[in-house]
Amino acid sequence: MLTVQGRHLGKLDPTLYLSEEGEELYDIPPGHLGRIWFTVAYSRASELLTITVHKARNLRQCSLAGGASFCVTGAEQTGTENEDSLVQDFRVKIFLEQNERKYHMTTVKKQMVNPNFNEQFSFQVAAYGIGQQALRLQVLGYDKRRRCRLIGYTSFSLATLDTASSDNVELRTFRDIQLDTEEETSENPQLFVALTYFPMAERLIVGLFDCRNLPLRENGLPVDIFAKVILHQGLQGKEIKTKRTELLGNREGFDESFVFQKIPDPASVNVRIILVQHGFLDKQLCFVVLGGELVSKGRALLHWQSMIERPEQRVCEWQELQLY
After folding, report:
1. Is this structure's pTM higher than 0.90?
2. Looking at 177, 210, 225, which one is the last position of a domain?
3. Which of 90, 94, 143, 235 has the fewest CB atoms within 10 Å around its CB?
4. Is residue 147 part of a domain?
5. What does the pLDDT look like over 70-110, one tens digit per residue?
């Protein structure tokens, strides 16, 4: 019995001595989107939550060709693939699920499916409520035209941290990336929108790019569509300026940007984007309003707030349009 115990006590557990390089050697299941490593630390004294994003491995490259989105690995990629539409650059967006408005972003790692980030970010989180919070990390991909796609996400419940027994807690972990099913299953028309605000120049730029889920004719071809971009001011929605795109035709997106001048306070205006079916009598199909909380909600509101918080930076999001 003593001999058996001695052998058991002296036996090495290889998982305790696994190097950071060795942890990357794992079985990749079918449909795998990638894995991300990060460290979560919390200080009760300062009520500071710190997240270090270390690295991601085996990220899937997604194609945006033809208005559709599908994932491919290097082995699956063919010579017919449009390289301009293949997502090859990645970054990570970090936020608390209860407050998506406040978020951080890593730098973009170009042409890397195994990027190293090693970047640190922090949030103020009250100690009494940390157990009810959850951290979300989204992996975003960009193609050569700077179009963005959500590759997937992972969540980490802060209740996992043992903050009750220690004033300072730190945990290094990893999570597999999963699809955002809500993002994937929406059937409403969607439009990729870029917003940029320049405070010194009092200038707002609205860019319209790719489209998804557009209505079709009976023969399966897209209807003739153009977009109207309308700048409104105040709660009464006074129309200040209207601009429109060319007809979409057989293109994947509009790829047009519009400049609105003399806007000293973006919080006092909002932008309504309308997709219109061209014909003898034009028919408005769907719309989205980007602005403050009195006129917008959900992703449209967050997009507008992000633009204000990040002046002179191009803030891009897919926007779901509501049918008339």
Report:
1. no
2. 177
3. 235
4. yes
5. 344 433 444 444 566 677 889 999 999 888 778 898 998 98
